[in-house]
Protein backbone atom coordinates (compact mmCIF):
# COMPACT_ATOMS: atom_id res chain seq x y z
CA UNK A 1 0.00 0.00 0.00
CA UNK A 2 2.95 2.29 0.59
CA UNK A 3 4.08 1.84 -3.03
CA UNK A 4 0.66 2.75 -4.44
CA UNK A 5 0.33 5.78 -2.15
CA UNK A 6 3.82 6.98 -3.11
CA UNK A 7 3.12 6.64 -6.80
CA UNK A 8 -0.24 8.42 -6.73
CA UNK A 9 1.02 11.32 -4.61
CA UNK A 10 3.81 11.93 -7.12
CA UNK A 11 1.35 12.85 -9.85
CA UNK A 12 0.99 16.62 -9.81
CA UNK A 13 0.18 19.57 -12.03
CA UNK A 14 2.44 21.79 -9.86
CA UNK A 15 5.46 21.36 -7.62
CA UNK A 16 3.02 21.08 -4.67
CA UNK A 17 0.99 18.30 -6.30
CA UNK A 18 -2.60 18.99 -7.38
CA UNK A 19 -4.59 16.41 -9.34
CA UNK A 20 -8.17 17.77 -9.54
CA UNK A 21 -10.49 15.54 -11.57
CA UNK A 22 -9.70 15.55 -15.27
CA UNK A 23 -6.43 17.48 -14.96
CA UNK A 24 -3.28 16.11 -16.64
CA UNK A 25 -1.95 14.76 -13.35
CA UNK A 26 -5.29 13.24 -12.47
CA UNK A 27 -5.47 11.50 -15.85
CA UNK A 28 -2.03 10.05 -15.16
CA UNK A 29 -3.31 8.79 -11.82
CA UNK A 30 -6.34 7.20 -13.49
CA UNK A 31 -4.11 5.49 -16.05
CA UNK A 32 -1.88 4.17 -13.27
CA UNK A 33 -4.87 2.80 -11.31
CA UNK A 34 -6.15 1.07 -14.43
CA UNK A 35 -2.75 -0.54 -14.99
CA UNK A 36 -2.60 -1.71 -11.40
CA UNK A 37 -6.07 -3.23 -11.62
CA UNK A 38 -5.07 -5.14 -14.74
CA UNK A 39 -1.78 -6.23 -13.18
CA UNK A 40 -3.74 -7.70 -10.26
CA UNK A 41 -5.87 -9.71 -12.66
CA UNK A 42 -9.10 -7.84 -12.11
CA UNK A 43 -11.89 -8.31 -14.63
CA UNK A 44 -13.83 -5.80 -16.70
CA UNK A 45 -11.35 -3.03 -15.96
CA UNK A 46 -12.32 0.22 -17.65
CA UNK A 47 -12.05 3.97 -17.47
CA UNK A 48 -15.54 5.45 -17.68
CA UNK A 49 -15.83 9.08 -18.87
CA UNK A 50 -17.63 11.57 -16.64
CA UNK A 51 -18.61 14.97 -18.10
CA UNK A 52 -17.28 17.69 -15.81
CA UNK A 53 -16.30 21.33 -15.78
CA UNK A 54 -12.60 20.47 -15.92
CA UNK A 55 -10.58 22.77 -13.66
CA UNK A 56 -6.79 22.71 -13.91
CA UNK A 57 -4.65 24.71 -11.47
CA UNK A 58 -1.03 25.48 -12.29
CA UNK A 59 -0.10 27.79 -9.45
CA UNK A 60 -0.89 31.15 -7.84
CA UNK A 61 0.95 33.91 -6.06
CA UNK A 62 0.59 37.34 -4.48
CA UNK A 63 3.55 39.69 -5.02
CA UNK A 64 3.92 43.01 -3.20
CA UNK A 65 4.72 45.80 -5.65
CA UNK A 66 7.95 47.80 -5.44
CA UNK A 67 10.25 44.87 -4.78
CA UNK A 68 8.23 43.36 -1.95
CA UNK A 69 7.92 39.67 -1.12
CA UNK A 70 6.21 37.06 -3.26
CA UNK A 71 3.80 34.71 -1.48
CA UNK A 72 2.72 31.36 -2.84
CA UNK A 73 -1.03 30.90 -2.92
CA UNK A 74 -3.65 28.26 -3.67
CA UNK A 75 -7.01 28.40 -5.37
CA UNK A 76 -10.25 26.39 -4.94
CA UNK A 77 -12.10 24.12 -7.33
CA UNK A 78 -14.19 26.00 -9.90
CA UNK A 79 -12.82 29.44 -9.04
CA UNK A 80 -11.74 31.38 -12.13
CA UNK A 81 -8.16 32.42 -12.64
CA UNK A 82 -6.66 35.78 -13.52
CA UNK A 83 -5.46 37.03 -16.90
CA UNK A 84 -2.01 35.74 -17.79
CA UNK A 85 -0.33 38.85 -16.45
CA UNK A 86 -2.29 38.73 -13.22
CA UNK A 87 -4.22 41.55 -11.55
CA UNK A 88 -2.29 44.48 -10.11
CA UNK A 89 -4.16 46.78 -7.73
CA UNK A 90 -4.29 48.20 -4.26
CA UNK A 91 -5.14 45.59 -1.62
CA UNK A 92 -7.40 46.60 1.27
CA UNK A 93 -8.34 44.74 4.45
CA UNK A 94 -12.11 44.17 4.71
CA UNK A 95 -12.09 41.93 7.76
CA UNK A 96 -14.60 39.10 7.43
CA UNK A 97 -15.72 40.31 4.00
CA UNK A 98 -19.42 40.47 4.87
CA UNK A 99 -21.72 43.23 3.70
CA UNK A 100 -21.25 45.31 6.87
CA UNK A 101 -17.47 45.20 6.45
CA UNK A 102 -17.76 47.20 3.22
CA UNK A 103 -19.72 50.07 4.78
CA UNK A 104 -17.80 53.28 4.21
CA UNK A 105 -15.28 51.51 2.00
CA UNK A 106 -14.96 51.80 -1.74
CA UNK A 107 -13.65 48.46 -2.97
CA UNK A 108 -14.10 49.32 -6.65
CA UNK A 109 -11.04 48.36 -8.66
CA UNK A 110 -9.24 46.94 -5.62
CA UNK A 111 -8.21 43.54 -4.28
CA UNK A 112 -9.78 42.71 -0.92
CA UNK A 113 -8.16 40.73 1.89
CA UNK A 114 -10.69 38.57 3.77
CA UNK A 115 -10.41 36.57 6.98
CA UNK A 116 -12.51 33.45 6.39
CA UNK A 117 -13.64 31.53 9.46
CA UNK A 118 -15.17 28.17 8.63
CA UNK A 119 -18.84 28.12 9.60
CA UNK A 120 -22.29 28.32 8.09
CA UNK A 121 -21.13 30.48 5.19
CA UNK A 122 -18.78 29.18 2.54
CA UNK A 123 -16.28 31.31 0.64
CA UNK A 124 -18.60 31.62 -2.35
CA UNK A 125 -20.70 34.20 -0.49
CA UNK A 126 -17.66 36.34 0.28
CA UNK A 127 -16.58 36.06 -3.34
CA UNK A 128 -20.02 37.03 -4.59
CA UNK A 129 -20.14 39.95 -2.12
CA UNK A 130 -16.74 41.17 -3.31
CA UNK A 131 -17.98 40.99 -6.90
CA UNK A 132 -21.04 43.07 -6.03
CA UNK A 133 -18.78 45.61 -4.30
CA UNK A 134 -16.76 46.11 -7.47
CA UNK A 135 -13.58 44.41 -6.23
CA UNK A 136 -11.22 42.84 -8.74
CA UNK A 137 -10.21 39.80 -6.68
CA UNK A 138 -10.10 38.34 -3.18
CA UNK A 139 -7.22 37.12 -1.06
CA UNK A 140 -8.43 34.76 1.69
CA UNK A 141 -6.69 33.56 4.83
CA UNK A 142 -7.84 31.68 7.94
CA UNK A 143 -7.42 33.76 11.08
CA UNK A 144 -4.56 35.98 12.21
CA UNK A 145 -3.64 33.27 14.73
CA UNK A 146 -4.18 29.52 14.77
CA UNK A 147 -6.81 30.01 17.46
CA UNK A 148 -8.86 31.93 14.91
CA UNK A 149 -8.99 28.98 12.52
CA UNK A 150 -10.81 25.67 12.37
CA UNK A 151 -9.00 24.21 9.37
CA UNK A 152 -5.39 24.96 8.51
CA UNK A 153 -3.95 25.83 11.91
CA UNK A 154 -0.42 25.81 10.51
CA UNK A 155 0.90 29.33 9.97
CA UNK A 156 2.61 28.20 6.78
CA UNK A 157 -0.28 26.13 5.48
CA UNK A 158 -2.21 26.69 2.27
CA UNK A 159 -5.79 25.46 1.92
CA UNK A 160 -8.12 24.30 -0.83
CA UNK A 161 -11.67 22.98 -1.15
CA UNK A 162 -14.39 23.10 -3.76
CA UNK A 163 -15.54 26.67 -4.19
CA UNK A 164 -19.26 26.15 -4.96
CA UNK A 165 -18.44 29.15 -7.11
CA UNK A 166 -19.71 30.85 -10.23
CA UNK A 167 -17.12 31.48 -12.90
CA UNK A 168 -18.43 34.98 -13.53
CA UNK A 169 -17.49 36.11 -10.01
CA UNK A 170 -14.06 37.58 -9.26
CA UNK A 171 -11.02 35.31 -8.88
CA UNK A 172 -9.71 34.48 -5.44
CA UNK A 173 -6.67 32.83 -3.88
CA UNK A 174 -5.73 31.61 -0.41
CA UNK A 175 -2.49 32.58 1.30
CA UNK A 176 -0.78 31.36 4.44
CA UNK A 177 -1.35 33.00 7.80
CA UNK A 178 2.22 34.28 7.73
CA UNK A 179 1.62 35.95 4.37
CA UNK A 180 -1.70 37.41 5.50
CA UNK A 181 -0.18 38.96 8.60
CA UNK A 182 2.58 40.51 6.50
CA UNK A 183 -0.04 42.03 4.18
CA UNK A 184 -2.13 43.28 7.10
CA UNK A 185 0.87 45.06 8.56
CA UNK A 186 1.73 46.67 5.22
CA UNK A 187 -1.87 47.81 4.67
CA UNK A 188 -1.95 49.35 8.16
CA UNK A 189 1.25 51.23 7.35
CA UNK A 190 -0.02 52.72 4.11
CA UNK A 191 -1.25 52.08 0.60
CA UNK A 192 -0.18 48.64 -0.58
CA UNK A 193 -0.30 47.38 -4.12
CA UNK A 194 0.07 43.74 -5.11
CA UNK A 195 0.03 41.61 -8.20
CA UNK A 196 -2.27 38.62 -7.81
CA UNK A 197 -1.78 35.80 -10.27
CA UNK A 198 -3.77 32.56 -10.50
CA UNK A 199 -3.14 30.22 -13.42
CA UNK A 200 -6.40 28.31 -13.97
CA UNK A 201 -7.84 26.55 -17.01
CA UNK A 202 -11.58 25.86 -16.97
CA UNK A 203 -13.18 23.66 -19.64
CA UNK A 204 -16.93 23.26 -19.36
CA UNK A 205 -18.50 19.85 -19.80
CA UNK A 206 -20.28 21.14 -22.89
CA UNK A 207 -16.88 22.08 -24.32
CA UNK A 208 -15.33 18.66 -23.70
CA UNK A 209 -14.43 18.73 -20.00
CA UNK A 210 -14.09 15.14 -18.82
CA UNK A 211 -12.75 13.04 -15.93
CA UNK A 212 -12.62 9.27 -15.63
CA UNK A 213 -13.93 6.80 -13.09
CA UNK A 214 -11.80 3.66 -12.98
CA UNK A 215 -13.74 0.47 -12.38
CA UNK A 216 -12.59 -3.11 -11.93
CA UNK A 217 -14.17 -6.32 -10.68
CA UNK A 218 -13.34 -9.49 -8.79
CA UNK A 219 -15.95 -11.98 -10.00
CA UNK A 220 -18.19 -13.71 -7.51
CA UNK A 221 -19.21 -17.35 -7.45
CA UNK A 222 -22.69 -18.56 -6.52
CA UNK A 223 -24.07 -15.04 -5.93
CA UNK A 224 -22.16 -13.27 -8.69
CA UNK A 225 -25.25 -11.33 -9.75
CA UNK A 226 -25.09 -9.40 -6.46
CA UNK A 227 -22.45 -6.74 -5.86
CA UNK A 228 -20.34 -5.40 -3.01
CA UNK A 229 -18.90 -2.03 -4.03
CA UNK A 230 -15.68 -0.44 -2.73
CA UNK A 231 -15.13 3.27 -3.38
CA UNK A 232 -12.35 5.82 -2.96
CA UNK A 233 -11.47 8.85 -5.05
CA UNK A 234 -8.34 9.58 -7.04
CA UNK A 235 -8.64 13.38 -7.39
CA UNK A 236 -6.97 15.59 -4.79
CA UNK A 237 -5.84 19.01 -3.70
CA UNK A 238 -2.06 19.25 -3.19
CA UNK A 239 -0.48 15.77 -2.69
CA UNK A 240 -3.62 14.28 -1.16
CA UNK A 241 -1.91 11.40 0.62
CA UNK A 242 -4.66 10.57 3.12
CA UNK A 243 -7.29 12.30 1.01
CA UNK A 244 -7.47 10.06 -0.83
CA UNK A 245 -4.42 8.16 -2.12
CA UNK A 246 -4.50 5.78 0.84
CA UNK A 247 -8.05 4.83 -0.14
CA UNK A 248 -6.89 3.71 -3.57
CA UNK A 249 -4.01 1.86 -1.91
CA UNK A 250 -6.45 0.18 0.50
CA UNK A 251 -8.70 -0.97 -2.35
CA UNK A 252 -5.85 -2.33 -4.43
CA UNK A 253 -4.34 -3.88 -1.31
CA UNK A 254 -7.63 -5.64 -0.66
CA UNK A 255 -7.63 -7.07 -4.18
CA UNK A 256 -4.01 -8.20 -3.76
CA UNK A 257 -4.88 -9.97 -0.50
CA UNK A 258 -7.87 -11.68 -2.12
CA UNK A 259 -5.74 -12.94 -4.99
CA UNK A 260 -2.84 -14.10 -2.82
CA UNK A 261 -5.05 -15.83 -0.25
CA UNK A 262 -7.16 -17.65 -2.80
CA UNK A 263 -10.34 -16.25 -1.23
CA UNK A 264 -13.39 -16.73 -3.49
CA UNK A 265 -16.09 -14.15 -2.84
CA UNK A 266 -19.68 -15.23 -3.32
CA UNK A 267 -20.70 -11.79 -4.56
CA UNK A 268 -18.97 -9.86 -7.31
CA UNK A 269 -16.69 -7.24 -5.81
CA UNK A 270 -16.60 -3.91 -7.66
CA UNK A 271 -13.82 -1.41 -7.03
CA UNK A 272 -14.60 2.16 -8.08
CA UNK A 273 -11.78 4.70 -8.04
CA UNK A 274 -13.98 7.71 -8.53
CA UNK A 275 -13.13 11.01 -10.13
CA UNK A 276 -14.18 14.51 -9.09
CA UNK A 277 -15.17 13.71 -5.54
CA UNK A 278 -13.67 17.04 -4.49
CA UNK A 279 -15.13 19.21 -7.26
CA UNK A 280 -16.86 18.64 -10.59
CA UNK A 281 -18.92 21.64 -11.72
CA UNK A 282 -18.88 25.40 -11.55
CA UNK A 283 -22.06 27.47 -11.13
CA UNK A 284 -23.53 24.86 -8.77
CA UNK A 285 -23.81 23.96 -5.11
CA UNK A 286 -23.91 20.14 -5.21
CA UNK A 287 -20.71 20.03 -7.25
CA UNK A 288 -18.69 17.47 -5.31
CA UNK A 289 -19.15 13.64 -5.32
CA UNK A 290 -19.60 13.90 -9.07
CA UNK A 291 -17.80 10.74 -10.18
CA UNK A 292 -19.65 8.42 -7.80
CA UNK A 293 -22.97 10.18 -8.45
CA UNK A 294 -22.52 9.82 -12.21
CA UNK A 295 -21.53 6.18 -11.82
CA UNK A 296 -24.59 5.15 -9.83
CA UNK A 297 -27.11 7.29 -11.71
CA UNK A 298 -25.80 7.21 -15.30
CA UNK A 299 -23.05 4.65 -15.89
CA UNK A 300 -24.22 1.76 -13.69
CA UNK A 301 -27.83 2.36 -12.57
CA UNK A 302 -28.16 -1.41 -12.09
CA UNK A 303 -26.09 -1.05 -8.92
CA UNK A 304 -29.19 0.32 -7.23
CA UNK A 305 -30.88 -3.03 -7.90
CA UNK A 306 -27.98 -5.44 -7.45
CA UNK A 307 -25.59 -4.07 -4.80
CA UNK A 308 -26.05 -5.38 -1.26
CA UNK A 309 -23.33 -3.22 0.30
CA UNK A 310 -20.92 -0.39 -0.43
CA UNK A 311 -17.81 0.57 1.53
CA UNK A 312 -16.37 4.06 1.06
CA UNK A 313 -12.73 4.70 2.03
CA UNK A 314 -11.43 8.16 2.83
CA UNK A 315 -8.70 9.63 5.02
CA UNK A 316 -7.38 6.25 6.15
CA UNK A 317 -4.10 5.67 7.95
CA UNK A 318 -3.72 9.09 9.56
CA UNK A 319 -2.56 7.47 12.82
CA UNK A 320 -1.14 9.13 15.92
CA UNK A 321 -2.12 11.22 17.82
CA UNK A 322 -5.55 9.84 18.54
CA UNK A 323 -6.96 9.44 15.04
CA UNK A 324 -9.74 6.97 15.80
CA UNK A 325 -11.09 4.56 13.22
CA UNK A 326 -14.50 5.98 12.42
CA UNK A 327 -17.48 4.43 10.69
CA UNK A 328 -20.54 6.31 9.57
CA UNK A 329 -23.52 4.31 8.39
CA UNK A 330 -27.26 3.87 8.83
CA UNK A 331 -29.06 1.86 11.46
CA UNK A 332 -29.57 -1.30 9.45
CA UNK A 333 -25.79 -1.83 9.17
CA UNK A 334 -24.53 -0.21 12.35
CA UNK A 335 -24.65 -3.05 14.89
CA UNK A 336 -22.74 -5.56 12.76
CA UNK A 337 -20.18 -2.95 11.74
CA UNK A 338 -19.60 -1.83 15.34
CA UNK A 339 -19.21 -5.44 16.49
CA UNK A 340 -16.39 -5.94 13.99
CA UNK A 341 -14.93 -2.49 14.63
CA UNK A 342 -14.54 -3.15 18.34
CA UNK A 343 -13.70 -6.87 18.17
CA UNK A 344 -9.91 -6.49 18.45
CA UNK A 345 -8.60 -3.37 20.27
CA UNK A 346 -5.09 -4.21 19.07
CA UNK A 347 -6.20 -3.20 15.55
CA UNK A 348 -7.69 0.10 16.72
CA UNK A 349 -4.89 1.49 18.94
CA UNK A 350 -6.22 5.05 18.82
CA UNK A 351 -9.80 4.10 19.59
CA UNK A 352 -13.01 3.85 17.61
CA UNK A 353 -16.04 5.95 16.83
CA UNK A 354 -19.33 4.99 15.20
CA UNK A 355 -22.17 7.23 14.06
CA UNK A 356 -25.64 6.66 12.65
CA UNK A 357 -24.98 9.17 9.89
CA UNK A 358 -25.03 9.18 6.11
CA UNK A 359 -22.23 11.61 5.34
CA UNK A 360 -22.85 14.13 2.57
CA UNK A 361 -19.16 14.96 2.21
CA UNK A 362 -18.24 11.54 0.87
CA UNK A 363 -19.16 9.28 -2.03
CA UNK A 364 -21.16 6.96 0.20
CA UNK A 365 -23.99 9.52 0.38
CA UNK A 366 -24.93 9.28 -3.28
CA UNK A 367 -24.68 5.48 -3.18
CA UNK A 368 -26.88 5.25 -0.09
CA UNK A 369 -29.41 7.68 -1.57
CA UNK A 370 -29.54 5.42 -4.63
CA UNK A 371 -30.67 2.57 -2.39
CA UNK A 372 -27.36 0.84 -1.68
CA UNK A 373 -26.57 0.01 1.98
CA UNK A 374 -23.39 1.93 2.65
CA UNK A 375 -20.63 2.32 5.24
CA UNK A 376 -18.08 5.14 5.30
CA UNK A 377 -14.65 4.71 6.91
CA UNK A 378 -12.02 7.23 7.94
CA UNK A 379 -9.43 7.91 10.63
CA UNK A 380 -9.86 11.62 11.13
CA UNK A 381 -9.41 13.13 14.56
CA UNK A 382 -8.58 16.67 15.54
CA UNK A 383 -4.89 16.73 14.57
CA UNK A 384 -5.20 15.71 10.92
CA UNK A 385 -8.41 17.62 10.34
CA UNK A 386 -7.13 20.90 11.74
CA UNK A 387 -3.53 20.76 10.53
CA UNK A 388 -3.21 18.64 7.36
CA UNK A 389 -6.63 18.18 5.77
CA UNK A 390 -6.89 19.82 2.33
CA UNK A 391 -3.54 21.54 2.85
CA UNK A 392 -0.03 21.29 1.48
CA UNK A 393 0.78 19.10 4.52
CA UNK A 394 -1.34 16.13 3.47
CA UNK A 395 1.87 14.27 2.68
CA UNK A 396 2.93 10.64 2.64
CA UNK A 397 5.24 11.32 5.59
CA UNK A 398 2.10 11.81 7.69
CA UNK A 399 0.62 8.40 6.82
CA UNK A 400 1.00 5.50 9.26
CA UNK A 401 1.06 2.44 7.00
CA UNK A 402 0.93 -0.05 9.87
CA UNK A 403 -2.27 1.64 11.00
CA UNK A 404 -3.57 1.67 7.42
CA UNK A 405 -3.11 -2.12 7.32
CA UNK A 406 -5.09 -2.41 10.56
CA UNK A 407 -7.84 -0.23 9.08
CA UNK A 408 -8.14 -2.55 6.10
CA UNK A 409 -8.23 -5.64 8.30
CA UNK A 410 -11.20 -4.26 10.22
CA UNK A 411 -13.00 -3.33 7.00
CA UNK A 412 -12.36 -6.80 5.61
CA UNK A 413 -13.99 -8.43 8.63
CA UNK A 414 -17.12 -6.35 7.99
CA UNK A 415 -17.59 -7.01 4.29
CA UNK A 416 -16.54 -10.66 4.35
CA UNK A 417 -19.34 -11.48 6.77
CA UNK A 418 -21.81 -9.76 4.44
CA UNK A 419 -20.39 -11.68 1.50
CA UNK A 420 -20.57 -15.05 3.27
CA UNK A 421 -24.09 -14.54 4.57
CA UNK A 422 -26.86 -15.99 2.43
CA UNK A 423 -29.38 -13.49 3.80
CA UNK A 424 -28.72 -9.74 3.99
CA UNK A 425 -27.38 -8.52 7.34
CA UNK A 426 -29.92 -5.77 8.00
CA UNK A 427 -31.23 -4.53 11.34
CA UNK A 428 -34.73 -3.26 10.55
CA UNK A 429 -35.56 -2.92 14.26
CA UNK A 430 -32.86 -0.23 14.47
CA UNK A 431 -34.52 1.58 11.57
CA UNK A 432 -37.87 1.46 13.39
CA UNK A 433 -36.26 2.93 16.51
CA UNK A 434 -34.73 5.74 14.47
CA UNK A 435 -38.02 6.44 12.69
CA UNK A 436 -39.84 6.71 16.03
CA UNK A 437 -37.27 9.20 17.28
CA UNK A 438 -37.40 11.30 14.14
CA UNK A 439 -41.19 11.48 14.16
CA UNK A 440 -40.84 12.68 17.75
CA UNK A 441 -38.40 15.39 16.63
CA UNK A 442 -38.66 18.67 18.59
CA UNK A 443 -36.82 21.49 16.78
CA UNK A 444 -37.58 23.78 19.72
CA UNK A 445 -38.19 22.80 23.35
CA UNK A 446 -41.65 21.29 23.82
CA UNK A 447 -42.63 21.92 20.21
CA UNK A 448 -43.05 18.81 18.10
CA UNK A 449 -45.47 17.88 15.36
CA UNK A 450 -48.36 17.69 17.83
CA UNK A 451 -47.89 21.34 18.81
CA UNK A 452 -47.96 22.76 15.27
CA UNK A 453 -51.44 24.06 14.32
CA UNK A 454 -50.88 23.63 10.59
CA UNK A 455 -50.00 19.93 10.78
CA UNK A 456 -52.65 17.42 9.83
CA UNK A 457 -52.61 15.36 13.02
CA UNK A 458 -54.36 12.31 11.52
CA UNK A 459 -51.38 12.06 9.15
CA UNK A 460 -49.03 11.96 12.13
CA UNK A 461 -51.14 9.28 13.82
CA UNK A 462 -51.20 7.21 10.63
CA UNK A 463 -47.43 7.55 10.29
CA UNK A 464 -46.88 6.46 13.89
CA UNK A 465 -49.14 3.47 13.34
CA UNK A 466 -47.23 2.55 10.17
CA UNK A 467 -43.92 2.67 12.05
CA UNK A 468 -45.41 0.51 14.79
CA UNK A 469 -46.43 -2.07 12.18
CA UNK A 470 -42.97 -1.88 10.65
CA UNK A 471 -41.39 -2.49 14.06
CA UNK A 472 -43.64 -5.46 14.67
CA UNK A 473 -42.73 -6.96 11.29
CA UNK A 474 -39.03 -6.35 11.91
CA UNK A 475 -39.17 -8.02 15.31
CA UNK A 476 -41.01 -11.02 13.85
CA UNK A 477 -38.39 -11.27 11.10
CA UNK A 478 -35.58 -11.22 13.66
CA UNK A 479 -37.29 -13.89 15.73
CA UNK A 480 -37.76 -16.12 12.71
CA UNK A 481 -34.16 -15.70 11.56
CA UNK A 482 -32.93 -16.51 15.06
CA UNK A 483 -34.66 -19.89 14.93
CA UNK A 484 -32.40 -21.12 12.14
CA UNK A 485 -32.44 -21.90 8.47
CA UNK A 486 -35.16 -20.22 6.43
CA UNK A 487 -36.89 -21.84 3.48
CA UNK A 488 -36.75 -19.99 0.16
CA UNK A 489 -33.77 -17.97 1.36
CA UNK A 490 -33.19 -16.24 -1.96
CA UNK A 491 -36.78 -14.98 -2.05
CA UNK A 492 -36.58 -13.82 1.55
CA UNK A 493 -33.26 -12.07 0.91
CA UNK A 494 -34.61 -10.38 -2.20
CA UNK A 495 -37.61 -9.11 -0.25
CA UNK A 496 -35.35 -7.75 2.49
CA UNK A 497 -33.20 -5.92 -0.05
CA UNK A 498 -36.22 -4.47 -1.83
CA UNK A 499 -37.42 -3.08 1.49
CA UNK A 500 -33.98 -1.68 2.31
CA UNK A 501 -33.62 0.02 -1.05
CA UNK A 502 -37.02 1.62 -0.71
CA UNK A 503 -36.16 2.86 2.78
CA UNK A 504 -32.91 4.44 1.67
CA UNK A 505 -34.31 6.08 -1.45
CA UNK A 506 -37.27 7.52 0.41
CA UNK A 507 -35.70 8.47 3.73
CA UNK A 508 -32.13 9.64 3.03
CA UNK A 509 -32.41 13.42 3.03
CA UNK A 510 -30.28 16.47 3.86
CA UNK A 511 -31.03 19.58 5.85
CA UNK A 512 -29.82 23.05 4.86
CA UNK A 513 -26.45 22.34 6.52
CA UNK A 514 -25.94 19.13 4.51
CA UNK A 515 -26.61 16.94 7.54
CA UNK A 516 -28.48 13.63 7.28
CA UNK A 517 -32.16 13.89 8.27
CA UNK A 518 -35.49 12.31 7.36
CA UNK A 519 -37.31 14.21 4.58
CA UNK A 520 -39.79 15.94 6.90
CA UNK A 521 -37.31 17.25 9.47
CA UNK A 522 -35.94 20.40 7.82
CA UNK A 523 -39.45 21.42 6.77
CA UNK A 524 -40.68 20.79 10.31
CA UNK A 525 -37.77 22.79 11.74
CA UNK A 526 -38.52 25.78 9.51
CA UNK A 527 -42.27 25.58 10.08
CA UNK A 528 -41.74 25.42 13.83
CA UNK A 529 -39.55 28.49 13.91
CA UNK A 530 -41.79 30.50 11.63
CA UNK A 531 -44.83 29.53 13.72
CA UNK A 532 -43.05 30.68 16.88
CA UNK A 533 -41.88 33.85 15.13
CA UNK A 534 -45.44 34.59 14.07
CA UNK A 535 -46.70 33.98 17.61
CA UNK A 536 -44.04 36.28 19.07
CA UNK A 537 -44.75 39.08 16.57
CA UNK A 538 -48.46 38.90 17.34
CA UNK A 539 -47.64 38.94 21.07
CA UNK A 540 -45.60 42.14 20.75
CA UNK A 541 -42.12 40.63 21.08
CA UNK A 542 -40.47 41.28 17.69
CA UNK A 543 -36.93 40.91 19.05
CA UNK A 544 -37.63 37.35 20.14
CA UNK A 545 -39.37 36.63 16.85
CA UNK A 546 -36.45 37.84 14.76
CA UNK A 547 -33.32 36.82 16.61
CA UNK A 548 -34.49 33.51 18.04
CA UNK A 549 -36.71 32.24 15.26
CA UNK A 550 -36.54 34.09 11.91
CA UNK A 551 -32.74 34.29 12.02
CA UNK A 552 -32.48 30.53 12.66
CA UNK A 553 -34.87 29.50 9.87
CA UNK A 554 -33.30 28.00 6.74
CA UNK A 555 -30.07 29.76 5.73
CA UNK A 556 -31.10 33.13 7.13
CA UNK A 557 -28.49 33.24 9.89
CA UNK A 558 -25.57 33.29 7.48
CA UNK A 559 -27.43 34.81 4.52
CA UNK A 560 -28.45 37.96 6.42
CA UNK A 561 -24.78 38.95 6.60
CA UNK A 562 -24.46 39.36 2.84
CA UNK A 563 -26.24 41.36 0.14
CA UNK A 564 -29.65 40.10 -0.89
CA UNK A 565 -28.40 39.18 -4.34
CA UNK A 566 -25.75 36.88 -2.83
CA UNK A 567 -28.31 35.33 -0.48
CA UNK A 568 -30.91 34.78 -3.21
CA UNK A 569 -28.31 33.27 -5.52
CA UNK A 570 -27.42 30.74 -2.83
CA UNK A 571 -31.06 29.75 -2.29
CA UNK A 572 -31.65 29.31 -6.02
CA UNK A 573 -28.96 26.64 -6.26
CA UNK A 574 -30.99 24.36 -3.98
CA UNK A 575 -34.25 24.73 -5.86
CA UNK A 576 -35.74 21.52 -7.27
CA UNK A 577 -35.85 23.14 -10.73
CA UNK A 578 -32.22 24.30 -10.70
CA UNK A 579 -30.52 22.86 -13.78
CA UNK A 580 -27.30 21.88 -11.99
CA UNK A 581 -28.64 20.05 -8.95
CA UNK A 582 -26.70 16.77 -9.53
CA UNK A 583 -26.90 14.52 -6.46
CA UNK A 584 -28.89 17.18 -4.60
CA UNK A 585 -31.83 15.74 -6.51
CA UNK A 586 -31.43 12.55 -4.45
CA UNK A 587 -31.60 14.39 -1.11
CA UNK A 588 -35.31 15.29 -0.75
CA UNK A 589 -34.33 18.92 -0.26
CA UNK A 590 -36.71 21.09 1.70
CA UNK A 591 -37.88 24.42 0.26
CA UNK A 592 -35.20 27.00 1.06
CA UNK A 593 -37.20 29.79 2.69
CA UNK A 594 -36.31 33.35 1.69
CA UNK A 595 -36.50 35.55 4.81
CA UNK A 596 -33.76 38.09 4.12
CA UNK A 597 -36.12 41.03 3.66
CA UNK A 598 -38.32 40.09 6.60
CA UNK A 599 -35.31 39.74 8.88
CA UNK A 600 -33.81 43.12 7.96
CA UNK A 601 -37.16 44.88 8.04
CA UNK A 602 -37.95 43.58 11.52
CA UNK A 603 -34.41 44.43 12.68
CA UNK A 604 -34.81 48.03 11.56
CA UNK A 605 -38.16 48.41 13.30
CA UNK A 606 -36.86 46.83 16.49
CA UNK A 607 -33.96 49.30 16.43
CA UNK A 608 -36.53 52.09 16.11
CA UNK A 609 -38.29 50.86 19.25
CA UNK A 610 -41.44 49.52 17.57
CA UNK A 611 -43.17 46.62 19.33
CA UNK A 612 -46.89 46.80 18.49
CA UNK A 613 -48.09 43.99 16.21
CA UNK A 614 -49.70 46.56 13.91
CA UNK A 615 -46.23 47.93 13.11
CA UNK A 616 -45.32 44.52 11.72
CA UNK A 617 -48.43 43.84 9.68
CA UNK A 618 -46.50 43.45 6.43
CA UNK A 619 -43.94 41.10 7.94
CA UNK A 620 -46.66 39.07 9.67
CA UNK A 621 -48.55 38.66 6.39
CA UNK A 622 -45.41 37.57 4.54
CA UNK A 623 -44.36 35.09 7.21
CA UNK A 624 -47.87 33.69 7.44
CA UNK A 625 -47.93 33.05 3.67
CA UNK A 626 -44.53 31.33 3.74
CA UNK A 627 -45.57 29.31 6.77
CA UNK A 628 -48.70 28.11 4.96
CA UNK A 629 -46.52 26.85 2.12
CA UNK A 630 -44.28 25.02 4.59
CA UNK A 631 -47.27 23.40 6.28
CA UNK A 632 -48.52 22.13 2.91
CA UNK A 633 -45.12 20.69 2.16
CA UNK A 634 -44.75 19.19 5.62
CA UNK A 635 -48.12 17.47 5.39
CA UNK A 636 -47.21 16.14 1.96
CA UNK A 637 -44.03 14.63 3.35
CA UNK A 638 -45.81 13.13 6.35
CA UNK A 639 -48.45 11.48 4.16
TrEMBL record:
It comes from the Bacteria. Residues 213-411 form the Peptidase M28 domain. Pfam families: PA (PF02225), Peptidase_M28 (PF04389). InterPro entries: PA_dom_sf (IPR046450), PA_domain (IPR003137), Peptidase_M28 (IPR007484), Peptidase_M28B (IPR039373). Keywords: Hydrolase. GO terms for molecular function: hydrolase activity. Residues 89-183 form the PA domain. This is M20/M25/M40 family metallo-hydrolase. It comes from Nocardioides marmotae.
